[in-house]
Amino acid sequence: MTARTVLQPADISRALTRISHEILESNRGGSDLVILGIPTRGIELARRIGAILDEIEPGSGSVGFLDVTMYRDDLAGQPTRAPSPTQIPSGGVNGKTVVLVDDVLYSGRTIRAALDALGDYGRPRAVRLAVLVDRGHRQLPIRADFVGKNLPTSSEERIRVRLRDTDGVEEVTIES
Amino acid sequence: MSETNPTLLVVGAVLPNGSRTDILVEGGRILRTGTGLTAAGATVIDADGLTALPGLVDLHTHLREPGFEQSETVLTGSRAAALGGFTAVHAMANTSPVADTAGVVEQVASLGVRHGYATVRPIGAVTVGLEGQRLSEIGAMAQSRAKVSVFSDDGKCVHDALLMRRALEYVKTFDGVIAQHAQEPRLTEGAQMNEGALSGELGLAGWPAVAEESIIARDVLLAEHVGARLHICHVSTAGSVDVIRWAKARGIQVTAEATPHHLLLTEDLVRSYDSRYKVNPPLRRSEDVLALREGLADGTIDIVATDHAPHPVEAKECAWAEAAFGMVGLESALSVVQAAVVDSGQLGWADVARVLSAAPAAIGRLSGYAAPFAEGTIANFTLYDPAVRRSFGLEHLAGKGVNTPYLDLELPGRVVATIHDGYATVLDGALVDSSVVAASAVAASALVATRAAVARG
Amino acid sequence: MRHLLSTRDLDRATAVGILDVAEDMADVAHREIKKLPTLRGKTVINLFFEDSTRTRTSFELAAKRLSADLITFSAKGSSVSKGESLKDTAQTLAAMGADAVVIRHSASGAAQTLARSGWIDAAVLNAGDGTHEHPTQALLDAFTMRRRLHGSASRGKDLDGLRVTIVGDILHSRVARSNVWLLQALGATVNLIAPATLLPVDTSGWPATIGFDLDTAIDDDPDVIMMLRIQSERMNAAFFPNAREYSRQWGLDDERLARLRPDTMVMHPGPMNRGLEISANAADSARSTVLEQVANGVSIRMAVLYLLLSGSVKP
């Protein structure tokens, strides 16, 4: 197995900063924005994006997290997954622009589950998707609105995102 | 007669006393024993390496007929007996109608004679309908053609002290014995298993040892007071062994039996809630099992009796509390006894012959078993291979019941041949066809009548 | 998990895992849409040989909130009350394609018999078997205790050091048995208080201390006091002289209630006999967790159904 680093800490930081600016731009400001991270690493990425938003436009980074385990379509074929908590910011999601944040966009099934889950918490005005890495191989008609880096991969390869707070190191690697 | 019941020559069997002998059976009797015997035209059974035991006598069998033929019949039960090495069984009275009249016991006995796999000795009920209210016609049953000498309400305890006293006294008249199912009914209402740490954990209503021991204590004192014979069925606790040991030391005429399953299995099996292990009295602690083995070895427990209790499949395919009590035991008894007390060195084969043949025959007043293998006695014996081991399976059962607790357990020994009244009921480990056995029985019936006359004399 | 038959099989990690999943399930109850699609297409059968409206409806709600198809078989009026055997019923349910069977039965061990019989391939969930176990009740009790102790920070925690006193008919209580094993796995200590007639004759194998005197137990300052329901049929069977004497000796009355710390939890699996084993004030006091127990029951049963019915690899 060989591992190749494709994003260094500085690259990750730049990507998140850019994504944050793009979010503000497309939303025409920071009002009614809710940033929801998808476990596990999406939570940390959402927290960082929220912090950057707050820096640019104080009060704009309303951050929560959304567990999609109970909405997955592959529960039967896998070992039992332990769900993790969901935390919706106190303002709820009704009428808001919700930005879902995940580390890697691959088949699109996680995002499909996230859209279903989100629907059970309310009716956002719009839902956007931000990902650190888009590696292709979509199985559903889903695309990201904000992408840190597009990484064309073969499906045998594995993308690993590691973040300082969850993994001790900060990098994105391709393993094959 | 020789057409149906050919001369049999058993070559090279080892007797319970350890001596090696040939056995020549002719005309229903043991004609000769010794080495190097020959007989022209005889059916030869090679018994090299086999142990010859006297025909086993079960003092406690449920044949279920009449009334519960879906569970067992005299035919199927006595086939199970033959396959287990038994040549005589005592059929318990809890049939429908209950064996509380001469008519019922004569019917059961005659069915046994007709099928021919074993001598069937009916046990008479102590009380009418096993209801514990009035004595049944004990005298009529004793003097019937069935010549009943053992009386029992087994399945139920004769718990009324006065009635028990009267029963003990009354059977003296006919040289009978009361076989008591010792179970204090109020202490065992709804009982499901041995009462102790495990019953508390499993949430099953307890069957306390004291419910058995207190009845035994009462009854041995009653037997002493009235000078009667008392037999205790299926003793299951260490405390009961102590009480009986004490009673025997006082000279009380008490005999006692233990079942094969109580000599081998413990209550830990109940943890599975597998109803094959549900039996009355219940499986007890390992301390009790050890005490029973010790009691059997020192003579406190006189005999092993199977309490063979067949049930239809549906009676066991349900939740524990809804399942019937009881296990089948005839086919496995000898193997289980070997596993429990012979292989451990506590009993020799001469002891096995005593506890499974001579002693139960004596308690049941069954003649012809006092001097097995003596020349001139009616030939009732079994040839047993103690060296083999087998995983016990349904194919080793011959009765209707499949409720054996030994399934898939490795057990020692195998019955190779059973000779009843001079003819084979089992050969090469398999039952002889029922039409052949029935014909042999007809041929031997004259003999049986002769023997009965001897017994009366 | 393949089946949930008793709490005796649960180790600490598994038990904490179930409670953690239940935390997530509890959140669903506070949403506008109280439903998850997780068990869509799964069939759950409630097989109740014994009446129990509370437990049955709790399981029904749990299964429905997870979008499972649910059928309830009650003994009354159906073939199971007409002598049909457990085997026939099980095979019928198997033919209907049940994925999970929730069984309540008056015979101890019935759930285990069903699970081990080979009559049916479904996951078996014991909803109370005779006087043996009632594992989801113990789990919801532990969940309730943990939430009172740790609130929203409950995830991942056990009940280490918690001192629980259980009072009443221990002998016939499946709730007590399940609690004894589970609480011990979670690190709590258990004290059982009852008249000697209502204790098993030998409790040497139980990880609990045993006492007869409720007042002594209250003086020992327990963190939790759990009152068990006293069944009226016990009075007729001479387990104790009468209700008045039982209440005086082993009832949580107002005087005893006043001697408890303000934060001592008063628990009861329900339904309560107010004025017998528990006074109205005790049942309605701020210490009482009775209504939380009911709400938490749904969350625990959702968690267990999820863990039994999702995943192909059974740990």
UniProtKB/TrEMBL annotation, chain A:
Assigned keywords, A-Z: Glycosyltransferase, Transcription, Transcription regulation, Transferase
EC number(s) reported in the record: 2.4.2.9
Start and end residues of each Phosphoribosyltransferase domain: 12-147
Task of the protein: Also displays a weak uracil phosphoribosyltransferase activity which is not physiologically significant.
Sequence motif PRPP-binding, residues: 98-110
Designated name of the protein: Bifunctional protein PyrR
Similarity comment: family membership: Belongs to the purine/pyrimidine phosphoribosyltransferase family. PyrR subfamily.
Highest taxon above the source species: Bacteria
UniProt cross-references to Pfam families, sorted A to Z: Pribosyltran
Catalytic activity of the protein: UMP + diphosphate = 5-phospho-alpha-D-ribose 1-diphosphate + uracil
PANTHER family named among the record's database cross-references: BIFUNCTIONAL PROTEIN PYRR
An example Gene Ontology molecular-function term: uracil phosphoribosyltransferase activity
Keyword Lyase: no
One of the GO biological process terms: regulation of DNA-templated transcription
Higher taxonomy: Bacteria, Bacillati, Actinomycetota, Actinomycetes, Micrococcales
InterPro entries: PRTase-like, PRTase_dom, PyrR, PyrR_bifunctional
Automatic annotation (TrEMBL), chain B:
Pathway listed: Pyrimidine metabolism; UMP biosynthesis via de novo pathway; (S)-dihydroorotate from bicarbonate: step 3/3
InterPro entries: DHOase, DHOase/Allantoinase_Hydrolase, DHOase_cat, Dihydroorotase_CS, Metal-dep_hydrolase_composite, Metal_Hydrolase
Signal peptide residue numbers: none
UniProt superkingdom: Bacteria
Catalytic activity: (S)-dihydroorotate + H2O = N-carbamoyl-L-aspartate + H(+)
Record-linked Gene3D superfamilies: Metal-dependent hydrolases, Urease, subunit C, domain 1
Record's cofactor remark: Binds 2 Zn(2+) ions per subunit.
PROSITE patterns in the cross-refs: DIHYDROOROTASE_2 (PS00483)
Keywords: Hydrolase, Metal-binding, Pyrimidine biosynthesis, Zinc
CC cofactor: Zn(2+)
GO biological process: 'de novo' UMP biosynthetic process; purine nucleobase catabolic process
Binding positions (substrate): H62, L63, R64, N94, N280, H311, F325, G326
Active-site annotation: D307
EC number: 3.5.2.3
Gene Ontology CC: cytoplasm
Residue numbers binding Zn(2+) 2: D154, H181, H234
Residues annotated to bind Zn(2+) 1: H60, H62, D154, D307
Record's function text: Catalyzes the reversible cyclization of carbamoyl aspartate to dihydroorotate.
Record-stated family: Belongs to the metallo-dependent hydrolases superfamily. DHOase family. Class I DHOase subfamily.
Name of the featured protein: Dihydroorotase
Protein source organism: Glaciihabitans tibetensis
Gene: pyrC
Automatic annotation (TrEMBL), chain C:
EC number: 2.1.3.2
Chain residues that bind L-aspartate: K82, R174, R229
A Gene Ontology BP annotation from the UniProt entry: 'de novo' pyrimidine nucleobase biosynthetic process
Sequence positions that bind carbamoyl phosphate: R54, T55, R104, H134, Q137, G270, P271
Cellular component per GO, a single term: cytosol
Residue ranges of every copy of the Aspartate/ornithine carbamoyltransferase carbamoyl-P binding domain listed in the record: 2-146
Coiled coil: none
A single MF term (Gene Ontology): aspartate carbamoyltransferase activity
Pfam families, sorted: OTCace, OTCace_N
Residue ranges of domain Aspartate/ornithine carbamoyltransferase Asp/Orn-binding in the record: 160-308
KW Transferase (keyword) present: yes
Superkingdom classification of source: Bacteria
Catalysed reactions, as listed in the record: carbamoyl phosphate + L-aspartate = N-carbamoyl-L-aspartate + phosphate + H(+)
Keywords assigned by UniProt, alphabetized: Pyrimidine biosynthesis, Transferase
Pathway assigned in UniProt: Pyrimidine metabolism; UMP biosynthesis via de novo pathway; (S)-dihydroorotate from bicarbonate: step 2/3
Protein role: Catalyzes the condensation of carbamoyl phosphate and aspartate to form carbamoyl aspartate and inorganic phosphate, the committed step in the de novo pyrimidine nucleotide biosynthesis pathway.
Subunit structure comment from the entry: Heterododecamer (2C3:3R2) of six catalytic PyrB chains organized as two trimers (C3), and six regulatory PyrI chains organized as three dimers (R2).
NCBIfam families noted in UniProt: asp_carb_tr (TIGR00670), PRK00856.1 (NF002032)
Family, as annotated: Belongs to the aspartate/ornithine carbamoyltransferase superfamily. ATCase family.
Protein's name in the database: Aspartate carbamoyltransferase
Organism encoding this protein: Glaciihabitans tibetensis
UniProt lineage: Bacteria, Bacillati, Actinomycetota, Actinomycetes, Micrococcales
GN (gene name): pyrB
